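Protein 1 of 2
SEQ + STRUCT:
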Amino acid sequence: MITLRPGKERGHANHGWLDSYHTFSFANYYDPKHINFRALRVINEDWIQPSAGFGAHSHRDMEIITYVLEGALEHKDSLGTGAVIKPGEAQRMSAGTGITHSEFNHSATDPVHLLQIWIIPDTQGITPSYEQKAFPLEEKLGKLRLIAAKDGREGAVKIHQDVDLYTSVLAAGDRIVHKLNPNRYAWLQVAQGEAKLNDYHLQAGDAVAASQVKLLDISTDKGAEILLFDLA
């Protein structure tokens, strides 16, 4: 079964300095039909204006992944981490027993465009931790690159949940086939461009949830950047 989640139906909040679209219920946006998908709890697509951002705030018991599409995001946290996240990198923050952080657009002139992803961990009360890795573009061109996984295999950042997160950058004419094992679920998010999943035509911001499907046939006529979650 494949279910479409149109990007135009997402929750939306424009605060001036922040323009945000919510795939799942978040903050003042609540939709009982879209609370989460398996352990996937949040996908927010954010545009943050130059020199603006989120002041210090706290999280508990959540795996938070930041994936920058354009621009650069500056991060500071109560672990003493200071970092700048750029396109091609994945940042993972395990909030565990509690962590405080801030996020700001690193540029004084250009907006930053990013996806912030929350995954419900399989264990609560873990020690907070931070990880950030770069994944070269050539490793994602026309193929799936694992960027986050429970076992941290293939150089992916390690998350505390049975979820494999892949990303890919597809050129016009590219095609990827992903086998979905029995009792596994998939969520495909189109970050940029246009893609096709089986018989579904998808625009940037669109997503599909898949279950009881053996093969995911992903292609594009115009080019796309996608994120694929393979979930327990």
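Protein 2 of 2
SEQ + STRUCT:
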Amino acid sequence: MLSAAGVGAGDEVIVPAFGNIEIAEAVALTGATPVFADIDPATYCLDPSAVEAVVIEQTVAAVVVHRFGRPADVARLHEIGQRHGLLVLEQGESETPHAEVAQRREQAAYLGRRLRGVRTPENSAGHTYQQYVVRVEGNGRPDRDAFARALKAKGVDCRVPVKTPAHRAPGFRRAVSLPETERAADETLALPMDASLTKREMHRIVSACNALGGLLQPAF
């Protein structure tokens, strides 16, 4: 899509650093330069204000990624694109049957009411909960990783959704300030979210999380 739009050498394309390194790679393949902008901490998608802050004369496009089932603020991003003459491309997530989305939302509501010691995702009408991502806040990665190891030991199949932001990856290292991206990479943890989960399994997830009492302090 970028090549078809005429994006190439000398151009800059704004992309998120939180996951999806293949987007930065796609930009680089056209000969253009990927420029990383920070994310909105609630949606994990590009923050429109952060996008506008990095627009320069060479900027020709922005690639917006919808994350974890929570859509980006597309209206604002397109408005910024129109104001600066930028192409705004979207990368969506796979479509999920309505019944499965309804089931996920029911599970998300259950977890949101019962989980303690982690920050649960903000509820929004458009959220389809492709992943149920919580935050283990505190001193950063040691706390989140210790929490994840303890959950796995209790039989909860959790995972870190983004281990290395694109601006830290080899070939794309940038000396940029992306505080929300860095914080999200250090704190986020995806808990099981699947229409096949039983009430008993959901209760086990809650019990395992709450038994840890939130943060686990790193050993000294």
